[in-house]
Amino acid sequence: MDVKLVSSILGTVVKVAAVLPLLPLPISLLYGELDCIAPLLLTSLIMLVCGVALERIARVERHVRPRHAIVAVPIIWLVIPLFTSLPYRFCEHMSWLDAYFESMSGWTTTGLTVLPDIDHAHRTILFWRSLEQWVGGLGIVVSIISILRFETPSLLYVAEAREERIRPNVVNTAKEMWKIYITITAVGFLALWAAGMNPFDALNHSMTAVATGGFSTRSESVTAWHSPTVELITVVLMVLGATSFVTHYRVAKTFRTSPAELPKRIIKALRQYLQDRQFLTMIGLTAAVTAYAGAVSGDRAWDVVRYYGYQAVSAITCCGFSNADVLSFPEYAKLAITILMIVGGSTASTAGAIKVLRFLIMAEAVKAAIARRTQPIRGVVVPRIGSRVLSEDEISDAFAIASAYMFFLLIGTLLLTAYGYPLVDALFEVASAQGGVGLSSGITAPNAPAFVKILLIFHMWIGRLEVLPCLAALYWLTLILKRLAVKGRD
């Protein structure tokens, strides 16, 4: 393992990311929050100096190999939140642990918060949280790839738990994703502004909805507006964020290139969504959980759709917005929502968790295995999704990621229950953290024990990178430490 190469990659990313703390400065000036200017400038300066230092110390070409990428990317996701926790520490006077928790929750688009008083926090910090989620939604490395040219960007792209491509070239894929991302965010901002939010709230909620992050400028989340229109707009934004950007690209391309009249072009574009099995599965699971909650609770249909349905959408898209008090939900509703948080959204989207596609792959593999045992010996059964035949690698990867994901989910749940929390609440909280959701059963709070915060930080980290890259990074880091220990003894 070339430690210098990993340091060089880390230094480059940190150096480029140093521009991000400068972006909230106009908010500080606009709202007269001058006490936040120095922490933002200091954060940017420290990141720039450390990034340049790491690059110069390494002084190597970027001949990235898989093992370098698999180590560098998880470290990047640990280090960047460490730097960007400084504004929380010095603007809001949070403890170092709370500041790191908030920053990690932002970058991983989780949305769990330990900010003591959101309603009276600096607007600079509220925008900073939203900005972290917005950039983190597409991925730190994906964002850097769209700016810089590494020799083998595809390795870094895959190491950040992304596989599908819009264009054959990874750099062009990242750029196309950003074009789509910015467009949806801009439309969402205008829609929320028109629905009654002020421009600041509309911008923040559009950013965090599309990023499926869930940070809000109000402690009551979208409930503060008491507006079905706002809720409907955020539902659309959450679903769009959790839908594959490959599908969005196909929709945009169909809409642009179709020679038909506008209504026909719209119909052709919408058909692209209806042909996306991940999109249809998300909608189907949301409807099923909502119907289940309605059948068991016996509440009015409108209340079921508005409250249980909204939480179901927020859970499966891994956003975390809420228009009701989840703490008051019955246990059966929490368990149903937990299942959606484990499933998650589409691949090549901003959503987290295991992802719908992997469940579809595993279901097809099980279906094929059953068919092979019930059909004649000479029958050939091949697992496929649509017309695409699934490879053995795809199937094994799906089962490996799902198994590792569930293993850590259960371990985290057991640790929280051992700490005294109820089983359902513990499972709900860990599933929310690991899936990058942000809905809370009440465990996450400013006064939560340090152990709980550290545990949830760990789950946010491994969940954002889908576990396996983190395990691979820990494996390589263990080897590096062993070699250094041997050299030290010699």
Automatic annotation (TrEMBL):
The keyword Cell membrane applies. InterPro entries: Cat_transpt (IPR003445). One of its GO terms (cellular component) is plasma membrane. It is a multi-pass membrane protein. The chain crosses the membrane at residues 12-31, 37-57, 69-88, 134-159, 180-197, 232-252, 279-298, 335-357, 398-421, 461-481. The keyword Lipid metabolism does not apply. Keywords: Cell membrane, Ion transport, Membrane, Transmembrane, Transmembrane helix, Transport. GO terms for biological process: metal ion transport. It is found in: Cell membrane. One of its GO terms (molecular function) is monoatomic cation transmembrane transporter activity. Pfam families: TrkH (PF02386). It comes from the Archaea. PANTHER family: TRK SYSTEM POTASSIUM UPTAKE PROTEIN TRKG-RELATED. Belongs to the TrkH potassium transport family. This is TrkH family potassium uptake protein.
